[in-house]
């Protein structure tokens, strides 16, 4: 039989990124959390955590975390059906990984009605759309919005649409770097802006022009900061149409190559046995996401 107090300690350590924060989350001492992890490891006969900074789950730890995520969701359903089981504790948070650009554009408007209706709390983990699924694979989240189509074991994926990106820059930047026109060579020479080491949007954009080498670029791991740097003329970059539309209309940004961009499909991943709450969120996203996202090819 599982001791869910021990599993809750494992989930808290991974989700909070350490023993001290996990103790605060659970209302326990740090030593008590550590003892629960040790007892869990004794019962399963192997380590459930890699003691690093932050701690990471082992293979068996990931399996246990996946189980915890699904049990939490099923418990939420049961409490809704049997109110007497509600012990007055605050609602469980629905932990979701998603890309920064979705969070900065359409996600809030799309999910606000769902949160109000279901009275659910969200715990959002921001990851690049190309790597967000690793959070789900590690058992850290109940759902994931990312660019990967293939789901992890025990999960399903649903195509919601595509995020359309345009290569943009400020008028002053264009005048300074592209006086003779926008070409692949000129784009590679001019400083670009990249969200992070996992962000390959600018590389894909250049590849459509026949340029497949690395290029000079700033790193800016903030969606809002990325746009601000672009508006200030620090570099050129790939910005979602949803985020750049007003600045383009006002002339504060210039579309470097009108009609040419990069569409990034967005897939919603969720556990097969995630209960009614996760199924409701999946249905809600399937219906609402097309209001903002382009039709994926």
TrEMBL record:
Xref: Pfam families: HTH_1 (PF00126), LysR_substrate (PF03466)
Transcription in keyword set: yes
Keywords: DNA-binding, Transcription, Transcription regulation
SUPFAM superfamilies xref list: Periplasmic binding protein-like II (SSF53850), Winged helix' DNA-binding domain (SSF46785)
PROSITE patterns to which the protein is assigned, alphabetical: HTH_LYSR
InterPro entries, per database record: ArgP, ArgP_gammaproteobact, LTTR, LysR_HTH_N, LysR_subst-bd, WH-like_DNA-bd_sf, WH_DNA-bd_sf
GO molecular function terms listed in the Swiss-Prot or TrEMBL record: DNA binding; DNA-binding transcription factor activity
Record domain HTH lysR-type: where: 2-58
Biological role stated in the UniProt entry: Controls the transcription of genes involved in arginine and lysine metabolism.
Similarity section: Belongs to the LysR transcriptional regulatory family.
HAMAP family: HTH_type_ArgP (MF_00513)
Subunit structure: Homodimer.
Protein name, as recorded: HTH-type transcriptional regulator ArgP
Organism whose genome encodes this protein: Pseudomonas mangiferae
Gene name of the encoded protein: argP
